[in-house]
Specification:
Blueprint: E1 3-8, H1 13-24, E2 31-38, E3 40-47, H2 50-56, E4 66-72, E5 87-88, E6 94-102, H3 105-114, H4 124-139, H5 143-153, E7 156-164, E8 171-176, E9 181-184, E10 189-192, E11 204-207, E12 212-217, E13 220-225, E14 230-231, E15 235-237, H6 253-259, H7 261-269, E16 273-274, E17 279-280, H8 283-286, H9 289-293, E18 297-302, H10 304-321, E19 325-329, H11 330-333, E20 344-350, H12 356-367, E21 371-376, H13 382-386, E22 389-392, H14 405-425, H15 430-452, H16 455-464, E23 469-474, H17 479-493, E24 496-501, E25 518-523, H18 529-541, E26 545-551, H19 556-560, E27 563-567, H20 575-593
Parallel strand pairs: 18-19, 18-20, 20-21, 21-22, 23-24, 23-25, 25-26, 26-27
Antiparallel strand pairs: 1-4, 1-10, 2-3, 2-4, 5-6, 6-7, 7-8, 8-12, 9-10, 9-11, 11-15, 12-13, 13-14, 16-17
Helix pairs in contact: 3-4, 4-5, 7-14, 7-15, 10-14, 10-17, 14-15, 15-20, 16-20, 17-20
The chain binds 5-amino-5-deoxy-1-O-phosphono-D-mannitol.
Length: 611
């Protein structure tokens, strides 16, 4: 949520910051802006996408070697020029950008208003900025000291960057709960919400921790805690290539990422799943096998698509490991005072590793003594760093706001974990273990097969693009896929869609069925197959339109459905990794047919770092 970029060094700051904002635009695209420090302070900002800012500044003086920039996902105040960041302090000498939410901003604003401050925007950011300036002026202190004092009063989450006319070539940054990476170059430093704006300049980075303040000049990086004690920056090497964050010939990131899945799933399994030797090597699991096999209960915590992966993992873990599993929305779990006992294992699932609700839910559980295992895609992210152990899903950077390859990567990791824990526990016998390993190994090629010819799915999308509602139904392992299919359609096409367990349909949603309602059945060959055939008949009996995801070679479902999208046969535990792919494509093609921006759907942001 909100993208932040900063630069100070020997280059012109504006082009570096602008390019960085374009890379981070997936985090929010309500407005954007830059502040350039060059003796004086120039601030340019504009409602809308970064391209609109780019046009608006044509002809302006953009010369500066120090600059900060922001792309916004609105929280406080509507998307508008005046609510766009950077904000300028009352005196006009300090500019600030912010990602996060200042929860106690109202009381601080009130205090400042009583002192005569007038606010130009509706944002919590402008309040914090003027609070800092007020402290600086009253205490006659440096910006850094004023910031430190201000942050002790702040409740909420933030990553902020500040530039001050009084401090040439300097950017001051602070974080709590919202990510910040610093890239280290020769005589230059880069700052960003993630590494994507940085990798083309340097691979040496420092991830700033919560409650740290960074004072950054072209030749100097000083890291301190809120107690003003110097911290030693931990410099890491980025394992990321520029090509991974570019479109590579595809029209959209979403399409590229859907098509990357054979490779990303393969990468996730590579070096871990060794069918020949019958072993699965996952250091995070290996090092904590005892805690995992003896778990009294597993609690899977996530949001959105990652929550759907968690739901599917519940089926896998209960079946293969015989461990009771609960699946929790992180946003509910964090506020519910949940019962957490010794012997409980909390598994957090997150693509970004920065989702605020998931992060805080884990912090709470960790404080209560739970063992935290993270299934995360973004390397070095907050959730990855705060987990006791974990396994990366190795899907690479996911830029499209709708999660696709990260989801199948999560499923591959969770399947390996279930196999490994189940086998180690003895709840999964050797022949089934080896059979499932073999099946899992074959999944990447089966996904490739689905992607070879997508013209049928595109035609189905064209046919139903004007429907106003969709129902998605599935049973067992395919129920979470029905939910995921409905979420993808909502996000990308703005068509109302609901996912339901197919049998539950009779308890209400069937009232919606008429000759205009497309009902998408995830109806692959599994142990629920006969039941789902009956559900399809129930819909057809009421003149509903049936679109089915069916197993290649099936003749029954295709005989009843209006349209069919085929997937190769697979074991029912793993088949969902296949059946989600046509549903991703269906949403993508419907979004395209409606002329929508599928990579940046309205109101959404890739990384939800506010609760
Ligand atoms: O980064 P996370 O996996 O923690 O994000 C969770 C959700 O915000 C995310 O899956 C969201 O639902 C996506 N837009 C789904 O496509």
């Amino acid at each position: 949520m909100c993208g932040i970029v900063g630069y100070t060094g020997h280059r012109q700051a504006y082009p570096v910051v602008l390019k960085g904002l374009k890379r981070l635009e997936y985090r929010g695209y309500d407005s954007s802006g830059v502040a350039l420090l060059n003796g004086d302070l120039k601030v340019y900002k504009k409602k809308g996408k970064v391209s609109e800012l780019e046009e608006a500044v044509i002809g302006q003086d953009l010369q500066a070697n120090t600059g900060i920039g922001h792309t916004r996902w609105a929280t406080h105040g509507e998307p508008s020029d005046r609510n766009a960041h950077p904000h300028q302090s009352a005196s006009g000498t300090i500019a600030m950008i912010h990602n996060g939410i200042i929860e106690n901003y109202a009381s601080i604003k009130h205090e400042l208003q009583n002192k005569g401050y007038v606010f130009k925007s509706d944002t919590d950011t402008e309040v914090l900025l003027n609070f800092i300036e007020d402290i600086k002026r009253n205490n006659n202190s440096s910006l850094e000291e004023a910031l430190r004092i201000a942050l002790r009063r702040i409740v909420g989450a933030y990553c902020i960057l500040l530039v001050d006319i009084d401090e040439p070539e300097t950017i001051i940054a602070a974080r709590k709960g919202s990510p910040l990476v610093i890239g280290i170059g020769k005589g230059e430093h880069f700052l960003a919400s993630d590494a994507s704006p940085i990798i083309e300049y340097t691979k040496e980075v420092v991830y700033v921790n919560d409650y740290e303040i960074a004072i950054i000049k072209p030749d100097e990086l000083v890291l301190k805690n809120l107690g003003n004690e110097k911290q030693t920056p931990f410099i890491q090497k980025l394992d990321l290539e520029l090509a991974a964050i570019e479109k590579g010939g595809y029209e959209h990131f979403m399409l590229k990422e859907i098509h990357e899945q054979p490779d990303t799933i393969y990468d996730c399994l590579r070096g871990r799943l060794l069918h020949e030797s019958g072993s699965i090597t996952m250091s995070g699991v290996d090092n904590h096998l005892e805690a995992l096999t003896s778990a009294n209960r597993m609690v899977l915590v996530a949001c959105g698509t990652s929550w759907h992966a968690a739901l599917l993992a519940e089926y896998m873990f209960e079946e293969l490991c015989r461990i009771p599993v609960e699946v929790e929305y992180a946003s509910e779990f964090r506020y519910r005072n949940p019962v957490i006992n010794r012997g409980d294992v909390i598994i957090a699932i997150s693509q970004s590793g920065e989702t605020a609700d998931t992060l805080v839910a884990l912090e709470n559980a960790r404080e209560k003594g739970a063992f935290i295992f993270g299934v995360v895609n973004a390397v070095g992210s907050s959730i990855a760093r705060m987990s006791h152990a974990g396994a990366y899903s190795h899907a690479g950077p996911e830029i499209g706001v709708a999660s696709t390859k990260a989801f199948t990567g999560q499923l591959a990791v969770l399947a390996m974990m279930a196999l490994k824990i189940g086998y180690a526990k003895g709840s999964l016998n050797e022949s089934r273990y080896l059979q499932l390993m073999k099946e899992l190994e074959a999944i990447p090629e089966k996904v490739r097969e689905i992607l070879q010819d997508t013209s049928n799915i595109r035609a189905i999308a064209e046919k139903y693009k004007d429907a106003s509602d969709f129902l998605y139904l599935g049973r067992g392992y395919n129920f979470p896929i029905a939910l995921e299919g409905a979420l993808k359609l909502k996000e990308i096409s703005y068509i109302h869609a609901e996912g339901y367990p197919a049998a539950e349909m009779k308890h209400g949603p069937i009232a919606l069925v008429d000759e205009t309602l497309p009902v998408v059945f995830v109806a692959t060959k599994d142990s629920y197959y006969e039941k789902i055939v009956s559900n399809v008949q129930e819909i057809k009996a009421r003149k509903g339109i049936v679109i089915a995801v069916a197993t290649e070679g099936d003749s029954v479902i295709p005989g009843m459905a209006d349209d069919v999208m085929y997937v190769p046969d697979a074991d029912e535990i793993l088949a969902p990794i296949l059946s989600v792919v046509p549903l991703q494509l269906l949403s993508y093609y419907i979004g395209i047919a409606k002329g929508l921006d599928v990579d940046k759907p309205r109101n959404l942001a890739k990384s939800v770092t506010v609760e």
